[in-house]
UniProtKB/TrEMBL annotation:
Cofactors: a divalent metal cation
Gene3D superfamilies in alphabetical order: Enolase-like C-terminal domain, Enolase-like, N-terminal domain
A Pfam match: MR_MLE_N
EC number in record: 4.2.1.113
CDD domains noted in UniProt: NAAAR (cd03317)
Protein name (Swiss-Prot/TrEMBL): o-succinylbenzoate synthase
Top-level EC class as recorded in UniProt: lyase
Alphabetical GO biological process terms: menaquinone biosynthetic process
GO MF annotations, alphabetized: metal ion binding; O-succinylbenzoate synthase activity; racemase and epimerase activity
Limits of the Mandelate racemase/muconate lactonizing enzyme C-terminal domain: 143-235
Coiled-coil residues: none
Key words, A-Z: Lyase, Magnesium, Metal-binding
Matches recorded under InterPro entries: Enolase-like_C_sf, Enolase-like_N, Enolase_C-like, Mandelate_racemase_C, Mandelate_racemase_N_dom, OSBS/NAAAR
Length: 370
């Protein structure tokens, strides 16, 4: 296909409650939405999961926008006739920028699959029509507030709880939630907040029958994670450190991780995500689908991925209402702790243009090959 036009749009959505992690607190989500129009007039949508500031990953919205405009889009235009499966190769000369690359590839994929009349879930190899929902719970202002928030998610039907932790907010909150919900699948995420010397402290988490501890150390500290994994009975799971199939292979081989959080934006797209999934499935390594506070556009595509057979743990695939009062698509609603996997062609959802226009802060268009 040939791309006639690209639209890069920044939108601003308030969160239903502040989301606090070890890298900061957010009370709204700025999102970069990518739209492509093919020369046949077919539209493809995608969400770039970069955040406003480079605090989770080195990518951030303004940077991703500039990378797309200055480098990635001109390279795709130069290639001329493209399909989703060729985009990664076309963009390979430009280093990093996985989130920017993923968004462009996904927009192409959406348009391509709409043309083919196939859902993303089918294309990726899904074998489920609904997926169990987990929820990521931020660092709370107090234990009481945490209990109230977690209880509301348990009551809503969530099947797995993930607690964000950091030094000073770890053993006691986890103990409290474990005592209150002895059988709930529970895991923790530190977003790199600890250092190598914290192994004996973190060992205390082994008492709480956690599914895993996610990214306790620096993203580059593969050796530190491998050492921690020998100290703890709780499985170590990498998030930030995994930016490609190659890095997943290395981290597994080095025993720095025994579970993988697959976040499509972080690894450069859904096609790379499927490669990581396939590699892990062959070796019986459990994987789950991470989240980046996506709107319905990104959430829809994540659900398609989470429906693949190797996604044996519930992901951070929560309902739209977990983060947003109003989503930019028809909201994803939980039924009995599950979300339905979209089955219409492409990612299966489109934005509500009136609402999206009302929260748009800037739009830029780039011409394609005509
Ligand atoms: O580390 O998984 C993370 C949100 C933003 C950046 C990083 C992370 C998260 C989450 C929320 O934990 C996941 C979600 O429910 O979208
Ligand atoms: Mg994480």
């Amino acid at each position: 296909m040939k791309i006639a036009e690209y639209e890069l749009r920044r939108i601003h959505l308030p969160l239903v409650r502040p989301f606090r992690t070890s890298f900061g607190s957010q009370s709204d989500r700025e999102v970069l939405i990518v739209k492509i129009t093919t020369d046949d007039g077919v539209i493809g949508w995608a969400e770039c999961v970069a955040m406003s500031a480079p605090v989770y990953s080195p990518e951030y919205i303004s940077g991703a926008l500039e990378t797309m405009r200055e480098f990635l889009i001109p390279a795709i235009n130069k290639a001329g006739d493209v399909e989703a499966a060729t985009i990664a190769q076309v963009l390979k000369p430009f280093l990093g920028a996985q989130m920017a690359k993923a968004a462009l590839e996904t927009a192409v994929l959406d348009a391509q699959l709409k043309t083919a009349g196939m859902s993303l879930a089918n294309y990726l190899g899904a074998n489920k029509t609904k997926v169990p929902c987990g929820v990521s719970v931020g660092i709370a202002p107090s234990i009481e507030a945490l209990v109230e928030e977690v209880t509301s998610y348990v009551d809503a039907g969530y099947k797995r709880i993930k607690l964000k932790i950091e030094p000073g907010w770890d053993i006691e909150p986890v103990r409290t939630i474990r005592e209150l919900f002895p059988h709930m699948p529970l895991q923790v995420d530190a977003n790199q907040a600890y250092s190598r010397g914290d192994g004996h402290h973190l060992q205390q988490l082994d008492d709480f029958d956690l599914l895993l501890i996610e990214q306790p150390l620096d993203e580059h500290d593969i050796l530190g994670h491998a050492q921690l994994a020998t100290l703890m009975s709780t499985p170590v799971c990498l998030d930030e450190s995994i930016t490609s199939l190659r890095s997943a292979e290395d981290a597994l081989e080095l025993k720095a991780t025994s579970v993988i959080n697959i976040k499509p934006g972080r690894v450069g797209g859904y096609l790379e995500s499927v490669k990581i999934h396939n590699y892990c499935l062959e070796r019986s390594i459990p994987v789950w689908c991470g989240g980046m506070l996506e709107t319905g556009i990104g959430r829809a595509a994540n659900l398609a991925l989470a429906a693949l057979p190797g996604f044996t743990l519930p992901g951070d695939t929560s309902a739209s209402s977990r983060f947003f009062k109003q989503d930019i698509t028809v909201p994803f609603e939980m039924n009995d702790g599950y979300l339905d996997v979209p089955n219409s062609p492409g990612i299966g959802v489109v934005p509500d243009m009136d609402f999206m226009n009302s929260i748009t802060t800037s739009i830029e268009t780039c011409v394609g090959t005509s």
